Amino acid sequence: TIGAIARDPAGNLAAATSTGGIVNKRMGRVGDSPIVGAGVYADNETCAVSATGFGEDFMRTVIAKTIADFIMMQGMEAVQATKAGYEYLTRKVSGRGGVIVIDAAGNCSSDFTTKKMVHGWIEKSGQTNCRF
Ligand code: ASP
Fold first, then answer.
1. What percent of the chain has a predicted confidence (pLDDT) above 90?
2. pLDDT in tens, 110-125
3. What residue's CA is closest to ligand 1, atom 9?
């Protein structure tokens, strides 16, 4: 997967997720990447999310929208909502993969259950983070 999320100075959030699918996928499998709420989601009121990993796990938990719902309904910020989303993903389906998240205030976060997930961000126009 190549995933990207962004917030512009006016507060507009955007997410993009592209994928080649998974190894040995069945003919015609679509996966989670183009499914809004599963592998990709953006809403100016909450956050933008892009996911990578086993799409079936993300579809079963609607993980991108679930993370947004933690922000919307429980007033969480990106870091808390990502953690809550990952607890849910793990408990519910032993989910395999990761997400990147930016909230409406520009806070960034990530989590993953795989050994590593190469990713990075520039937070609030200054602080650079690269993680492996
Ligand atoms: N999530 C994608 C899929 O299940 C795989 C990926 O991470 O690119 O199709």
1. 91
2. 999 999 999 999 988 7
3. 21
Does the beta carbon of 39 lie inside 6 Å of ligand 1?
A: yes
What's the whole-model pTM score? 0.95
14-40 in b/e burial notation, b at 16+ Cβ within 10 A? ebebebeeeeeeeeeeebbbebebbbb
Report helix, strand or coil for 38.
Answer: coil
Distance in angstroms between the alpha carbons of the first and the last residue of the chain? 15
Does ligand 1 come within 6 angstroms of the Cβ of 22?
yes
C-alpha 88/C-alpha 99 separation (Å) is 13
HSE at residue 34, side-chain half, CA atoms within 13 A, is 6
CA of 9 to the centre of ligand 1 (A): 30
Ligand 1, residue 52: give the atom nearest the CA. Answer: 7
The dihedral built from the CA positions of residue 38, 44, 81 and 3, taken in this order, carries a sign that is positive
